[in-house]
Design goal:
Elements (H helix, E strand, L loop, with lengths): L2 E8 L2 E8 L1 H18 L12 H31 L4 E7 L16 E9 L14 E4 L4 H14 L2 E3 L10 E8 L13 E6 L5 H4 L10 E5 H4 L2 H10 L7 H4 L2 E13 L5 H7 L8 H35 L6 H11 L6 H27 L6 H16 L10 H9 L3 H23 L3 E4 L2 H10 L3
Parallel strand pairs: 5-11
Antiparallel strand pairs: 1-2, 2-4, 3-4, 6-10, 7-8, 7-10, 9-10
Helix pairs in contact: 1-2, 3-9, 9-14, 12-13, 12-14
Length: 456
């Protein structure tokens, strides 16, 4: 009978020695020899009629090694299960374990040593007393009017005026590097963009008014745009917004198209087109419905932010220790990317954070019987695909989704990733239901700033 010896190396870090004797593996070894003899294709012998001695001579060593290793592994896993040992990752064989010492001609006792890291014990934070905040953004008249303006333009009629004359004109333009006189640098690549006239600095706009299609103007990014637009335009042009010499670089801007969107009138036809199925006939009712939708949007965003706060409460307040020496060794030996010891050391804090959340979320899932079914995984994959392709013009035909999702369901990594997304969502939703947050009214700008702090 196998012998198991357990020894502590450090807190939550143990060594387990598994010793097996011929009695533990000989039966399986002989059975495997016979099974192989029945199926082996060896020249000179009919299938199933190969003498055991021939099989043993040709393949016995490999079969013997396989069965001894299987015996050791089975004994180890049975011991861990019987003793109810909660461990991290997988048992790690020591480097000194050497299957080369196995000899089918001299069966004897063999000992293999493994290291294991034990799962830490911890207590989940009391969410009912944790300091959390539910932020409330109320829809105001400005928000409603901005949304109305956006929809009026989205559903409006596109025209192509001859000259630039309105701050709302859309200018399709190209940029090319040039000198102060507009002479384009040799080999300078054209970079296209689409800009509203009002994106340009107020003092610069007069230089564009009256311009026609195909006309050009020389500009410097640092003076032609206000700070907000300057940042992303500089990025598009490959400039550093923090370098004065980059912002002083001259560009020849050529207008390739002028467009203007005529906003829709606020009438019943527009209301029904903007909000189909709502049967809205008056401007007052239209604004009321938009107000409700805006507040519903911010309510969803506020719930996400609350769950993010709760994630931090759970991750940071659930105190636990880890067998770090074991985990670093385990990562080094089992990583498939061939990462170096230095890389693992650098990424180790992030790994511990993820491991901590995994333990916390699994504990919540176990205590509250949180489960994820196949349909939920498929829905998650479907939403993921819609996120990738939803903006493309599919003509409303999404029948391809089901067959695509079916293919994704055969990919173990895709399924595991979707499972974790759904599971974490359910865990955080449960946790949010246990919290008693303080309600705080904020503006949309203030809320966006709060989201920025949690954008990681």
């Amino acid at each position: 009978m196998a012998q198991i010896n357990r020894e502590q190396l450090a807190p939550l870090h143990e060594k387990i020695t598994v010793s097996v004797s011929p009695a533990d593996y000989n039966g399986a070894y002989e059975a495997s020899l016979k099974k192989y003899a029945k199926t082996a294709n060896i020249p000179g012998f009919r299938k199933g009629m190969v003498p055991a001695g021939i099989v043993k001579k040709m393949h016995g060593a490999a079969i013997f090694t396989e069965e001894v290793l299987r015996s050791i592994e089975n004994e180890l896993m049975q011991y861990l299960q019987t003793e109810n040992i909660a461990y991290l990752g997988q048992p790690l064989p020591e480097d000194g374990n050497d299957p080369a010492m196995f000899n089918q001609n001299e069966p004897k006792d063999y000992a293999f040593v493994f290291e294991i890291g034990l799962k830490p014990t911890f207590t989940l934070p009391d969410l009912a007393t944790a300091k959390t905040t539910l932020h409330v953004v109320e829809a105001n008249e400005e928000m409603v009017n901005e949304e109305i303006d956006r929809i009026q333009r989205r559903l409006g009629k596109m025209t192509e005026p001859e000259t630039v004359s309105n701050e709302e004109d859309v200018l399709n333009v190209s940029f090319q590097k040039c000198d102060a006189n507009g002479v384009v640098e040799e080999g300078s690549e054209k970079k296209d963009n689409s800009l509203l006239l009002k994106y340009f600095a107020e003092g610069f706009r007069k230089n564009l008014l009256g311009k026609k299609k195909d006309e050009s103007i020389v500009l410097q990014v640092g003076t032609a745009f206000e700070e907000k637009e300057r940042e992303w335009i500089a990025g598009d042009l490959g400039l550093d917004k923090n370098k004065a010499e980059d912002l002083e670089q001259h560009f020849l801007l050529q207008i390739t198209k002028i467009a203007f969107v005529e906003k829709r009138d606020l009438d019943e036809t527009f209301f029904k087109e903007a909000l189909p199925g709502k049967d809205i006939a008056t401007e007052e009712a239209f604004k009321g419905e938009l107000s409700n939708q805006i507040e519903a949007y911010w309510k969803t965003q506020a719930q996400h932010l609350l769950e993010h706060e709760i994630f931090h409460v759970l991750s940071e307040d659930a105190k636990m220790d880890f067998p770090e020496t074991f985990l670093k060794k385990w990562l080094l030996k089992t990583n498939e990317k061939g990462q170096s010891e230095e890389t693992i050391e650098k990424e180790f804090p992030a790994f511990l954070n993820q491991l901590k959340w995994t333990l916390v979320s699994n504990e919540i899932g176990t205590q509250n019987a949180i489960q994820v079914n196949r349909n939920e995984i498929m829905d998650s994959l479907r939403q993921q695909l819609m996120g990738y392709f939803g903006s493309m013009n599919m003509g409303g035909n999404f029948e391809w989704l089901d067959s695509y999702v079916d293919r994704m369901m055969s990919d173990k990594e895709q399924v595991e990733s979707a499972y974790q997304r759904v599971f974490s969502t359910k865990v955080l939703a449960w946790a949010a239901s246990q919290a008693k947050p303080t309600t705080q009214k904020v503006t949309a700008v203030e809320f966006a700033a709060l989201q920025g702090k949690h954008n990681h």
